[in-house]
Specification:
571 residues; alpha+beta; Chitinase A, domain 3; 5 domains; six-stranded antiparallel sheet
């Protein structure tokens, strides 16, 4: 640039300075609010619009950093409607479009602040104002409840309705994320009725339609929450509330027991009624799936009478009508379970709905007889078993759920027993009576005719038993107390005939030979046994009263004579 041109430029700048034109580097007075969005949250579900009600914190300073006002210093947020002239114009403009948790620096020129008048003792005239603002809450009078389902069980047979009693966990925060309450921190659910005015309106509405186990986020505007008053020191006035809710369970005071038949046997000849004794396995859970008890974990069925008040009323009702082998789900409301107090021993909270998945093993009634089903009976069967008969039979024994217990087929030969001699359980003895050789039966034996409440080795207490029996052979027995009976009148000179060598004494060999001869000639018969020699030996021992190895005339007596003298087990 030529020297003359440089002189001309300097003169021009001097004149502009004298005339009051802004010097270089001075932007001059601001025409609008300067907005610096120095923090914007990643998620912004809503921006403040004209007419919205907002809550925010701020610090207000002058250009030199001197503070003239602060909501923080007062310990309370500022609440008001944006964009309707209730704030200074610069603040009205600077707050619009903000997200919850967004932070802004605002520079408000005087004409959009307090102008040439200022605020006496606080803000001088023509002051430019600097605000550092954080948005905490935004809502509108036209807002509705905002419900977001976070997770929902696949299975949902029922949802919450008005007048239901609910148990739920929750975390409660303000819209900016500030926590104010949590049921988790108290270690217990919040329990209450829905739709009866016990909750804030927004929560009353937000819980409707929920399934047990469902999780929801519920955003409640202030007019459906605590409104202008707020709640204590934790919820400010005009605060929107955010609840993260997990519905644990619910019921209605009018509810009865709900039954779900998971598996019912095709053949169900009988259903349980009041007074029956039931053996069943179960898993007990709360509605959220928490296991509180299980018979499987103890490897032992739960055994009880139903309809007698020995178990909770809901289970008393829920087991009515079950079939043997049935699997059933029983859902029991608390007023038919453990009520408001719960059961600490079983980890059952107060007012908890209980779910029992039940598998019925068997049941019986104390008045039940043996149930006999004839599977096969030979034609032309004229001779059947009676008490005192000696029988050989095969059997398979199991529980009613099919659990195999014992079988005669596991041994080399059939089972042998004298009926009516108290050698087998009463129910089996009854089931073997009036059978033909070759006949097959199925016997259902209740425990009072089986092994009773105590059970036996391998047999659970109070178990109903199922026997498959086949009669292989039978031998006619003798009356109780007899080891041998005559088919006719015994010989008048019995001792002389028995004393084969006529030496005045009858040793064991002579006695055995005589008895065997009588049996062989059909004149009498021994008590049936798998060991006839032992029976004869017992007979001899009973007659040899002084145990000297010989029977004398004074010692030998008929059983009929012994009966009169109240002495048993003789000839």
């Amino acid at each position: 640039m030529a020297p003359g041109s440089r002189c001309l430029l300097l003169l021009l700048l001097l004149l502009l300075g004298v005339l009051g034109a802004p010097a270089l580097g001075d932007p001059g007075p601001l025409e609008d609010v300067v907005i610096d969005r120095y923090y914007i949250p990643k998620i912004c579900l809503r921006e403040a619009q004209m007419g919205d009600f907002i809550r925010y914190h701020y610090n207000g300073t002058f250009k030199d950093g001197k503070k003239f006002d602060s909501s923080y210093d007062r310990g309370a947020t500022v609440a008001g409607v944006v964009g309707v002239g209730r704030l200074i114009t610069g603040m009205d403009r600077g707050l619009q479009g903000m997200c919850v948790n967004e932070r802004r620096h605002l520079i408000v020129p005087p004409h959009l602040g307090y102008g040439s008048i200022g605020v006496a003792g606080l803000i001088p005239p023509d002051a430019t104002l600097y605000f550092d603002v954080v948005m905490l809450d935004i809502w509108n009078k036209n807002d509705k409840l905002q419900i977001t389902t976070l997770s929902k069980p696949e299975r949902c047979n029922r949802t919450v309705e008005n007048s239901d009693f609910v148990r739920y966990h929750y975390n409660g925060t303000l819209l900016d994320g500030t926590p104010f309450d949590s049921s988790y921190s108290k270690g217990s659910t919040y329990d209450t009725y829905v739709g009866t005015g016990w909750l804030i309106k927004g929560m009353d509405q937000g819980l409707l339609g929920m399934c047990a186990g469902e999780k929801r986020s519920i955003i409640i505007p202030p007019f459906l929450a605590y409104g202008e008053k707020g709640y204590g020191t934790v919820i400010p006035p005009q605060a929107s509330l955010v609840f993260s809710v997990l519905l644990v369970d619910f019921h209605n005071p009018k509810d009865g027991v709900f039954l779900e038949h998971l598996e019912v046997p095709e053949s169900c000849k009988r259903r349980a009624v009041t007074g029956d004794f039931v053996r069943y396995h179960y898993n007990g859970t709360l509605m959220d799936g928490t296991l509180f008890d299980s018979s499987y974990s103890r490897n032992q069925t739960y055994n009880t009478y139903i309809g007698k008040g020995y178990i909770i009323p809901g289970m008393d009702q829920g087991l009515q009508g079950v079939c043997m082998g049935e699997q059933r789900r029983v859902v029991i409301p608390p007023h038919l379970a453990y009520g408001e107090n719960g059961a600490g021993k079983h980890k059952i909270p107060g007012s908890a709905v209980l779910i029992f998945d039940v598998h019925v093993i068997d049941f019986h009634n104390p008045a039940d007889p043996v149930e006999i089903e004839t599977v096969f009976r030979p034609e032309g069967c004229n001779v059947t078993t009676r008490n005192r008969d000696f029988v050989r039979y095969h059997y398979n024994c199991s529980l009613l759920d099919g659990t195999r217990l014992f079988s005669s087929h596991d041994y080399e030969k059939p089972q042998e027993v004298t009926l009516g001699a108290n050698k087998v359980i009463e129910g089996l003895n009854s089931g073997l009576l009036d059978m033909c050789e070759g006949e097959r039966r199925v016997l259902i034996i209740p425990p009072h005719l089986g092994h009773g409440e105590s059970g036996a080795r391998g047999v659970p207490g109070s178990a109903v038993l199922r026997f498959e029996v086949e009669l292989i052979s039978m031998e006619e027995g003798v009356p109780e107390g007899y080891l041998f009976i005559w088919h006719g009148e015994p010989p008048a000179n019995l001792y002389e005939q028995m004393d084969l060598d006529k030496d005045g004494g009858i040793p064991a060999e002579e006695f055995s030979t005589f008895i065997k001869t009588q049996v062989a000639e059909g004149k009498g018969r021994l008590m049936p046994s798998s060991d006839p020699e032992k029976v004869i030996a017992d007979m001899f021992r009973n007659q040899d009263r002084n145990q000297d190895g010989k029977i004398t005339p004074d010692e030998l007596k008929l059983k009929s004579d012994e009966d009169q003298e109240k002495i048993h087990e003789e000839l």
